[in-house]
Amino acid sequence: MRPVILAIESSCDETSASVICNGKVLNNIIARQSEHHKYGGVVPELASRAHQRKIVTVVEEALASASIQKDQLDAVAFTRGPGLMGALLVGASFAKGLAWSLGIPLIDVDHMQAHILAHFIEEPKPVFPFLCLTVSGGHTQLVVVKAPFDMTIIGETQDDAVGEAFDKAAKILGLPYPGGPLIDKHATLGNANRFKFPKTDMPGLDFSFSGIKTAFMYFIRDEKLKDPLFVEKNLNDICASLQQALINMLMDRLEQASRQTGIKMIAIAGGVSANSGLRSTLAARGVALGWQTFIPAFQYCTDNAAMIAMAAHFKFLENQFADLTIAPIPNLHSMSEA
């Protein structure tokens, strides 16, 4: 029954808690914030206040649904970064106070490493070494994963993350926040070959999404000058075409990275890995290229405490504990670079 760890995730706008026992995730409680919808994006101060209101209830629910008492915990884990500073502080402060009051170890977790280690929550699980494409609103990275905490970034975006490109495109189209999932929804009904958008070629294995984002903005502007109802008439095809262009940019780099490293154990992680188009394209590309592909369940793609719990489990086994003076780092970057 050991170790039993309570994990807390508060890096952005989800307040989440999870209990893991002997490497098995028992639950994954997530309280989402609706405060940001009318602003078209996450407002950091509102996110922090919402975490303060929700964190006690979320933690109590996680412990109760796992039938775990606080005195049965062996450690408390929290997201140290990257993320919004105020939001991170809420989770870190709560975790420190609880660990101190119980006299048990504190574990700090890198949010991006946790996204990758989410693959070990459920079967099937990849075998080391594997290549992981991590895609979210703030990051786009190609990572060689040799062990739970031996990760090397071999390619990353030099400007915008792919998740930001999805969300900004949705805003240009007038779709409500969060717009990325809505683009995915409309794309399933559209013709992905209807419109063409340029891709930016970067040296090596790096990405760039600022160019396609700008091209998309001007494309919509020019078409609306000719027909003010252009978006409404063509929304599904626009979304399908843009989504396919972004996915092609990701998959081309992933295929290149696989060739260069010789790794055919391929995984994706992060919020954008919930995108149905990306998931189906990876599966198809995997069959064509002889890859073994791994995609987390939907609930473990977006920000969640279960992935923090899994990372904390690995750190507990290696006695990687933090002291109570440790501080959140909004731009934490724990992985090495090639």
Overall body shape:
globular
Give the CATH level 1 class of the largest domain.
Alpha Beta
Largest sheet: 6 strands, mixed
Q: What's the structural domain tally?
A: 2
Based on CA atoms alone, the radius of gyration comes out at: 20 Å
The total strand number stands at: 12
How many helices does DSSP assign? 9
CATH domain topology of the largest domain: Nucleotidyltransferase, domain 5
Assign a percent range to the helix content.
40-55%
Describe the structure.
This protein is α/β, with parallel strands linked by helices and 338 residues long. The chain has 2 domains: 4-116 and 300-337, 2-Layer Sandwich (Nucleotidyltransferase, domain 5), CATH 3.30.420; 126-295, Nucleotidyltransferase, domain 5, CATH 3.30.420. It is 42% helix and 19% strand. It contains 9 helices and 12 strands. The strands form 2 sheets. Strands 1, 2, 3, 4, 5 and 6 form a 6-stranded mixed β-sheet that branches. Strands 11-10-7-8-9-12 form a 6-stranded mixed β-sheet, sandwiched between helices. Helix 1 (44-65) runs parallel beside helix 2, helix 3 crosses helix 9 (305-317) and helix 4 (162-172) packs parallel to helix 6 (210-226). The chain is globular, with a radius of gyration of 20 Å.
